[in-house]
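Hi V.,

You were right to ask for the full record rather than a summary. Here it is.
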Amino acid sequence: MNFLENTFRNLTRSADRPVLGEARAGKVFAVTGGELLDSIQRARVFSRRAGLQKGDRCVLLAHNSIDWVAVDLALMAEGAVVVPLYARQAPSELVTIMRDCSPKLLCCGDTTLRDAIVGLWPEAPPRYLLSEVILREGSAADLQDVPVELEDHDPVTIIYTSGTSGEAKGGVLTVGNVNHMLPCTTERLDQLMGRQSEPERVFHYLPFCFAGSWILMLSCLSRHSVLTLSTDLTKLMEELALASPQYFLNVPALLERVRRGVEEQVAKRGGLASFLFAKGRAAWLRQQAEQVNFAAALWLWLARRVIFSAIRKKLGPGLRALICGSAPLAVETQQFFLMLGLPVLQVYGLTETTAICTMDVPGNVEPGRVGPAIPGTEMKLGENDEILVRGPHVFPGYWNRPEETAKVLRDGWFHTGDQAEVNAAGNWRIIGRVKNLIILSSGHNIAPEPIEDLLLRSLPGAQQVVLVGNSRSYLAALITGGVEEERVASALASVNAQLPHYKQIRAYRLLPEAFSIENGLLTANGKLKRDAIALRYGAEIDSLYSKSAV
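Predicted structure:
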C-alpha cells in the first residue's frame, strides 16, 4: 500500500471527525475526513474532464488552505505530477519556473495571482481557481475513490529549490521517496505523543510548497490528527490559541523572535520577575553544566514555580514540543525553550532527500545538534566535511537538469553541500554550506554562518549579518537593522575576543535596507542570496578594504 492509498484509508476511517481546519475570523473552520474525501473526488472529476494524464505536470499556486490540500491529493491520485509554487514569489520568477516544467494546468488560489501570471505569460496553459477545480455542484460518486496505480519510481511532485545562486531547480520526488519518509516521521511522532485516544492537535503556518511543510501535512493526514492551518501570519498568536496545538513545525527565525520577545517583556516588567528570571536561568545553566548547588537548586525551583511555568503556559498550555527545521537553530534558543520545559526537536534535510535526513529523538535531545540519521539512511562526511547521503528517500534528480543532477549524485551518494560534524552518539551538527566557505588570502578556510550567528546574537536590533572576505586579508561584515555604531563596536570586541585571529571581524558596514524576498536578496524560504548581496553591495564591500581595520 503506497502513501496515497494509506492516506485515503485513514480519511475514510476518519469520515465523521475533523481532520483539517483553517483558522479564520477568530474561529476554526474544519472539515471531516469524509468531507475532505468528497472535495478530493470532485477535483479528480475535474482533472479527468480537463484531460489530465498520468505524468502531466500541474502547477499549484496558492496559499495554504483546505482546498490546496484537496487539489494536491486529487492530482496525485490521478497520477499527475504536482508542482507547488510559493504564492509570495515574484511573478517573473514564477513564470520562469513554469516555463521550465511545462505544466498542462495551472491551479491558482485567487484571481490576483492568476492575472499576474497571465500578464507576463499570455500563452500560459489553461488556468483555474481552486474553487473551480473542486466542483461544488453535482456528484462525484461515480468515481472510484482509490488512486490510480502508481509504481515506486513514478514522480508525484516537483519541488523547486530556493536558488541561492542561479535559477531554481526542480527536485523530483517519487512515490517511493514518500513511501519511505512517512513511516520515519510517524515513528518519531509516536515517540513524542505516545498513545492517546483523542486526535493529535497540530498547527501549521509554513507554505506547503516547501518539502518539509508538505511532508508534515502528509504525515498528519495519515495519522490520528487534526491539522489547523494558519491563514494570517499577522495573527499567528491568536491562531495558535485557537488551535491549541500539541506540536507544530517552525523555522529558527520565529523561535528566535519569540525568545527575544519573552526576554524583552521580562526586562520591561523589571522588579521581582526580572530578578527571578535571571536567577532561574543562571541556575538552569549551572544544572546543565552539572555544577548545581543548594542555592542554585532553590532558585531554579522558585523560577519554575513562579515565572517559567507562566511563560510556558502563555506559549501554549497543551504544547509537548516544537519542531524546527530549514536552518540550524541557535543553541541558546534551543536551551531557552528547554529551560521552560518545552523541548525543540530539530530536523535536518533538503528537498532532494524528501525533506529529512536526521531527526531529534524525543527525550534525547542534544542542544545545537539535529539528531541522528533516520532509519534506512546512510550519512558520512566527505571532502571539506560535506555531508554525503544515500537511502530510499534520495531523489532521482532535477527536472530537465541532467548535468546538475550528475554534480550532486555521484558514486551512489547525494552530495548535500552542507558542512557538518557528527559525535560518538551519532548526533549531527550543521556548520554551514561548503559553497559559502570564505577563503582568505592567508589560505584560512572559514565557515561564515557560526560567526554570523554569534554576532547577530550579540547585537539586539540587528536583522541580518553577512560576512565577506573571500580572497581578502581579513573578514568584514555587512549588518542590517536599527543598531548604533557604538553597540556594533562593543559587540565586535566581545565576539572577536572569542575567536582566533584569522576569524576576527576587522571592518563592518551598516546597511539601511534589510535583505528581503522582495528586494531579491533572500530566497523564497528566507535564505541569504550571498552572490546577489555581494553584487548589490560591491562598492560598499570594496570600501571596507580600502581603510584601516576596526
